[in-house]
Amino acid sequence: MNKMLYFGVVGSGSITETHIKSIQKVPNAEVIAIFSRNKETSEKWGKQYNIQVYSDYEEFLGNDKMDIVTILTPSGTHADLGILAAKKGKHVIVEKPIDTSLNKTNELIHVCREANVTLSCIFQHRFDDGIVDIKNAMDLGKFGQLNFGAARTTWYRSQEYYDSGAWRGTWELDGGGALMNQSIHYIDLLLYLMGPVEEVHAYCATRAHERIEVEDIAVASLKFKSGALGLIEGNTAAYPGYSATLDIFGNDGSVIIENDEVKEWNFKNGNQYTKALREVVKTSASSNKMASFESHKKQYQDIVHAISEKRDPLVTGEEARKSLELILAIYESARSGRPVKL
C-alpha cells in the first residue's frame, strides 16, 4: 500500500479551498499545514480544516512531517518559493503559470532535479474527461493530420477585480494579463494536443481597464512545427463573460470543447462521442468557475501516484514551461510588431 503523503499549502487566497478540498479527496493524501502572510484568512482555513498555521516560511518548511508544498501565491513568486521548498527536500506543486520568468523557471526545474524531488504545475484541465478522450483518439490516429487549432478565452474581469490586490495586473507579480492569468489553461491544452509552436505573430492591448500594466485583450496567429496553423485569443473585456473554447481540426475529424465539455465531435468515419452525457454545473457567466473539483482531484491523484511510483507526473516542470514560453513570445511579438520564432 502507498504511504500517506502530507501536504503544506502556501497562500490563503480565493483558490486555496479548492486545493485543500481536492487534496483531501485523494487517498493517502492529507493537508497538515498552511503558510500565509494574511493571518486572518490562514487562521480561517486552519480552523476550518484542522491544519497548522504558519506565518514564517522557514518555520513552515521546517515541518519534517510535510512531504509536499503546494504554492498558491502571486505568479511572480512561484519559482522563488518553490526553490526554497525543494532545497528543504519537499516535492513542489505550483499554481499556473509555473512562474513569470523563463530564467527562474529553468532554475526551479534544475533545483528540483538536483534535489530529487517531484515538480508539477496545476493544469487540471488536462484531466477533464473530454480532453482525456480527445488525447486518446489522437494517439490512435483518429484525427489524421492536424491542420488547425484555436484557443479562445472570452471572459470578463471588472475593474474591481484588478483593484482588489496590488499585485493584480502587474508585470512583476501577475506576469501578464488576459493571456498569462486567464487564458493559460486553454493555451496549455492547445500545446498539449497540437504540439509545439514554431512562430507567432501577435497584438496585445489594454482597452477596458485602468491602472493595470498588462493586456486585457490579445490575439495571436500561430504556425505549429507540424505545419498546422492556429489562433489564440485572450480577453477579459468581454462583458459579461462568455466561454473558453478549444477547436481542433484534422484531416479525418474535428472536435470543439466549450467550457470544458465536448460540444462537437465529428469524424469522417461516422465515429460519435458516445460517453454518457456529464452534468454541467451552471454558474454565473462572470465567475467562470465550476463547482466541482474533480479535475483538480484527478491531477493531485496523478501527482501522488507519480511520487509513490517514482515516475514523472503528467504535468512536469518542463511541460508547464511550454505555455509560459509561448505567452512570453506573444508579448515579445506584440511589443516588437514582428513575428517571433520559438
From TrEMBL:
A Pfam family that the UniProt record links to this protein: GFO_IDH_MocA_C
Domain of life: Bacteria
Domain Gfo/Idh/MocA-like oxidoreductase C-terminal: 141-342
InterPro entries the record matches: Gfo/Idh/MocA-like_OxRdtase_C, Gfo/Idh/MocA-like_OxRdtase_N, Gfo/Idh/MocA_Oxidoreductase, NAD(P)-bd_dom_sf
Domain Gfo/Idh/MocA-like oxidoreductase N-terminal: 7-121
Homology family: Belongs to the Gfo/Idh/MocA family.
The protein, known as: Gfo/Idh/MocA family oxidoreductase
Naturally occurring in which organism (per UniProt): Psychrobacillus mangrovi
Species classification: Bacteria, Bacillati, Bacillota, Bacilli, Bacillales
